[in-house]
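Researcher: Please translate sequence to structure tokens.
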Amino acid sequence: MVFARITGIVIILFSILIGMIHFNFLSDVLFGLNIVFIGIFLFIADQVFAMVKNFAHSENKFISLGVPIIFILIVSTYFISSFLPDSISVNIKLIVAVLMLAEGLYRLH
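Model: Translation complete:
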């Protein structure tokens, strides 16, 4: 329970940073590290952990696997954004930030 709250807070902080990067308040690279990449990597790792944990303890296996896989697929589109239409590729950081914020808030409940 404590781990879920800590990861929720970390995901919320990274989502705020990614949102600020999307609106050009911050640069993509802070202290020599790509903040967007680190945030997406942590989010994917968190979803894989949630998938493993929920699969072992849940009776509804479809939802336990389906929702994290959908989140991982949506967030992974950041890595192929150059192949997406311009309307999506321009706003992919905002989409990722909103998804991460929603998941972080869900972790805190």
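Researcher: Any highlights?
Model: Residues 2-107 form one domain.
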